[in-house]
Amino acid sequence: MKKELKIPLIKNGTVIDHITAGNAVKVLHILGIPISTSSVVSVAMNVKSKFGKKDIVKVENREIDPQEVDKIALISPKATINIIRDYKVAKKHKVELPNEIIGIVSCSNPTCVSNANEPVKSRFKVIEKDPPKIKCYYCEREPEVIADRII
Ligand SMILES: Nc1ncnc2c1ncn2[C@@H]1O[C@H](COP(=O)(O)OP(=O)(O)OP(=O)(O)O)[C@@H](O)[C@H]1O
Ligand SMILES: [Mg+2]
Ligand SMILES: [Zn+2]
Fold first, then answer.
1. Near ion ligand 3, which residues have CB within 5 Å?
2. Fewest CB atoms within 10 Å of the CB: 25, 58, 100, 109?
3. pLDDT tens, 101-135?
């Protein structure tokens, strides 16, 4: 008996591979994919990989913008983005956090200037990329659980 369930190949779209095990649903959330989507979406959780376990998300007819890539890097620093065109991997790149992230994570300090009603965008310095550690440029607060602060 075959021990693997084949999931359908996608013709055009994106495969996010090597997602930190347990974070696939967060990736779906980042991509804004609703529970009631009509697109073909495949999610694999806790599958075996060369280095322990990983999750995979495959979305048909969807490419990913740079802000989404940075958000994915914050929760899955080893993820790879594979652009699928005509069933083949047309492009592959590893996510990589830039040295600063602007406007994608909110500061956990309620009195931070970036949380005031002024038009100051949140801004963080990236101290470590894997596992990610970030520090507010304005008040130096480090969010404990970055995933909970993604805007
Ligand atoms: N047409 C497709 N539809 C769905 N998934 C695909 C398609 N083509 C490739 N993939 C998936 O995209 C990912 C990357 O494919 P690739 O062939 O580059 O694998 P790989 O050599 O194992 O890559 P890596 O070294 O990044 O792990 C794999 O998870 C693969 O299953
Ligand atoms: Mg592989
Ligand atoms: Zn702050």
1. 107, 109, 112, 136, 138-139, 141
2. 100
3. 999 999 999 999 999 988 899 999 999 999 999 99
Taking the centre of ligand 3 as the mean of its atom positions, its distance from the CA of residue 94, in whole angstroms, is: 28
pLDDT in tens, 42-86: 999 999 998 899 999 999 999 899 999 999 999 999 999 999 999
Residue 3 lies in a domain: no
The whole-model pTM stands at: 0.91
Give the contacts of 67 (CB within 8 A, at least 6 positions apart): 103, 104
The protein residue whose alpha carbon is closest to atom 18 in ligand 1 is 89
Is residue 5 in a domain?
A: no
- Note down the domain range covering 126: 100-149
Ligand 1 atom nearest residue 15's Cα? 12
Nearest 5°: the CA angle 135, 20, 84 is 110
Q: How many domains does the chain have?
A: 2
24 and 39 fall within a common domain? yes
